[in-house]
Amino acid sequence: MFGSHLSISGGMHNALIQAEEFGFDTVQVFTKNQQQWRFAPLTDEAIAQWKEQCRRLKFDQTVSHDSYLINMASPDDKLWRASIALFTEELRRCVQLGIPWLVTHPGAHMGSGEETGLARVAKALDIVHKAIEDKSAITCLEITAGQGTSLGYRLEHLARIIELTDAPDRLGVCLDTAHLFAAGYDFRGLAYDDLIKQVESTVGIDRIKVLHLNDSKKDLGSRVDRHDHIGHGTIGLEGFRPWVRDKRFINVPKILETPKAQHESGRPWDAVNLETLRGLMA
Hints:
The chain is an alpha/beta fold and 282 residues long.
């Protein structure tokens, strides 16, 4: 099940139409302008159009990504409360649209320390989940590259947040290949099995609800988040073969977040990357 993060310009349903044109099986979107704190409520028409296209395409495993402004680990109370309010709206939108997976970065502790930051995230999620009682949309904690004071660059960080929350059943995990690699997790060749064992011993395989398949412009352990096209970065083509062939992830959305541009052939890179990934399944 492959998809890409696509634009909602002109209406959220347009992302679904783009996904169909590329030949994707799913899609990832922002449900609002991710660079703004302000938002207008979703209209009944926007919700109806989204659901109609999802039904037509049989897209029942769509994904949303929350705003990058959100920092639920922040030690600053004003930013922390604003982040909670915005994330609550993000989760509400997923419920309204029938989007089952909402991906979020755990945030940055901004000098307060990792354990304090992880506890702050868990507390924030408890507040969000109490505000949104509908459990149809699951929050997926994403592994990060670990830039600056960012949390989530260790699988143990994600496991700790899940452990600290009152409703662990409302949390899943998103593994991003570029982030894993930059954070120091090697999964190329035989190393893939070792990574899966680490996943099993921390968050558990069953909690992996979304995969982000991105190559990395930066080296293993660089702690720098820079995405590249499949097979064109430091991970390399063979680093993606085990992910697309692993039967445990056959029904897990695999989302491209690679740069939007035209390939030298004149085709969109999304189409080229999709073709490359499907070619690795054989």
